[in-house]
């Protein structure tokens, strides 16, 4: 059951030396590729990183978190702000069957077209889309018996700007202007079997029925 998979997934930070087969890495990336996005905008790029030097650099970007370096593979998740420009977003809408007039109409409504609301909103909406793809990739990994951890404590334009390390990473990964590294997924096999222990707030603190404060009882 998918719920069992979700409940048993746990962030794993200690990995064995075992190599992940490329076929499995491809399946994980496909799970991101097929994830849903707003109007099918797909404002993302996913970069599979296995190179030791690159992983060491990515670890530096993430407050030197050791599991970025020791992971067998890292998927770098990019929010692509360029996906929203007239040309790129227009292509996506045209593939949905929209004509030029229809596209112009969409692009004139701020709720539908974040570019009209400024760069911060474009980043926000791009990040929103990428997070769905990240979840899909982590669950596919778990399905394949591969453990993972999301790395969000990183320097970028949404957190803190660290010019030196950000430029080095951008150059190493060949990122263009407007392509923002927003998180990474570390992948590997857990060193030791870890009992999944889900530390979560109480179910009733999070889940409500009809209105906040009312329990959903089954
Ligand atoms: C957006 C986001 C960013 C995260 N960043 C980090 C991180 O930088 N380093 C890390 O070790 N774990 C990170 N995590 C993992 C969380 O700590 C973990 O999901 C949470 O403690 C719940 O544990 P679980 O995943 O085992 O259920 C992040 C999770 C999310 C969703």
Description of the molecule:
The protein is α+β, with helices and mostly antiparallel strands. It has a single domain, classed as 3-Layer(aba) Sandwich (NADH Oxidase). The protein has helices spanning 2-8, 22-33, 52-61, 66-70, 86-95, 100-106, 119-143, 163-173, 203-206, and strands at residues 44-49, 73-80, 147-151, 179-188. A four-stranded antiparallel sheet has the order 1-2-4-3. α2 (22-33) packs across α7 (119-143) and α3 (52-61) packs antiparallel against α8. The protein starts with a helix and ends in a 12-residue tail after the last helix. The structure holds flavin mononucleotide.
Bound molecules: flavin mononucleotide
Our count of helices gives: 9
CATH class: Alpha Beta
Stated plainly, the CATH topology is called NADH Oxidase
Count of beta strands: 4
Shape assignment: globular
Mean pLDDT: 95
CATH architecture: 3-Layer(aba) Sandwich
Secondary-structure element order, N to C? HHEHHEHHHEHEH
Q: What is the CATH superfamily classification? A: NADH Oxidase
Whole-number total of structural domains: 1
**Estimated share of beta-strand residues:** 5-15%
Distance between the termini: 19 Å
Characterize the largest beta sheet: strand count, sense, and whether it forms a barrel: 4 strands, antiparallel
**Order of strands across the biggest sheet?**
1-2-4-3
Structural class computed from helices and strand pairing: alpha+beta
Helical content stands at 40-55%
Give the C-alpha Rg. Answer: 19 Å
Low-confidence stretches: none
């Amino acid at each position: 059951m998918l719920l069992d998979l979700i409940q048993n997934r746990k962030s794993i930070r200690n990995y064995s030396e075992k190599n992940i087969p490329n076929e499995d890495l491809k399946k994980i990336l496909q799970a991101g590729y097929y994830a849903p996005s707003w109007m099918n905008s797909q404002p993302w790029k996913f970069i599979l990183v296995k190179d030791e030097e690159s992983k060491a650099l990515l670890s530096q970007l993430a407050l030197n978190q050791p599991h970025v370096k020791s992971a067998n593979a890292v998927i770098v998740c990019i929010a692509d702000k360029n996906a929203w420009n007239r040309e790129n977003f227009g292509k996506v809408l045209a593939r949905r069957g929209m004509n030029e007039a229809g596209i112009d109409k969409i692009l004139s409504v701020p709720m539908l077209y974040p570019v009209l609301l400024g760069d911060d909103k474009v980043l926000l909406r791009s990040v929103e889309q990428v997070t769905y793809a990240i979840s899909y990739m982590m669950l596919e990994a778990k399905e394949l018996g591969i453990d993972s951890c999301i790395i969000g404590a990183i320097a970028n334009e949404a957190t803190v700007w660290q010019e030196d390390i950000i430029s080095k990473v951008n150059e190493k990964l060949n990122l263009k202007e407007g392509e923002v590294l927003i998180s990474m997924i570390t992948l590997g096999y857990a060193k030791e079997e870890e009992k999944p222990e889900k530390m979560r707030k109480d179910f009733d603190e999070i889940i409500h029925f009809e209105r906040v404060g009312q329990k959903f009882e089954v």
